[in-house]
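Could you help me review a protein record that somebody else here produced? What it holds is a sequence and that sequence's fold in token form. I need someone to confirm that the token line plausibly describes how this chain folds. Take the sequence as given and treat only the tokens as open to question. This is what I was given:
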Amino acid sequence: MKSTSRTKSIDESEVLNATIPKIFKDDNGVDLAQWLKNNPHKLDNKRILYVVKANLDENIYKFGIGGLQGGTGAYGRLLQYVNYYGSSKENKPNDEVTKLTNKNKDNECLGIKLYLIVGNEYSHNPYADGKFAASKNSLVARKELYLKKLVKAKGAGEKGRGRERTSMSYNELVRNILEPFSKHITKFQDEIDKYYIKQEQEGKKEVKDHLITLRKQGDRKVNNKEKGFYKE
């Protein structure tokens, strides 16, 4: 018989009041390759959510998650960006991280900057963020899902580049990541309201079906009493 302690349901009230601990934050951004070189073990056994921006993208930020299975997964996820984008020209390729792709050191678009990492220890909480919890129930996965929904509701996504790239301002993106989950409920609904009003004004009748879909995918049922937009 399986131990019931491993299958205990998540306390949703704890999730609503939770914030994800900050591991790194720099509003100006730092070269990701250099940061990984200087902090090779800082992300060990961490489940993380991060914000990066490629130098070739002027105002497009990318958020994502890594390390859902613990170990060195978080470091490996960020290293994939270095493999793809390389390192900025001010960092000389004198180690294995920057040697990987830094072949054109004169290219000003080369490299990617790291702005924020939040995360939990893999075994910190066996029900919300621990080794017995499904990856989708981890706090970082829940936060990423919320961000994807918010980006879509605001129309701030990058078409054809996935839901994790956004033109949302850096300050707004970071604020949404650092604040507790309880702040998201009203905010997400407000963004949907704005989206609906804008689309209706533009005569897009299919918006009702779109909002019904958002409601079904949301973390909670939308209150039908609020503005009456969501009644089926």
About this structure: Residues 129 and 138 are 5 Å apart (CA to CA).
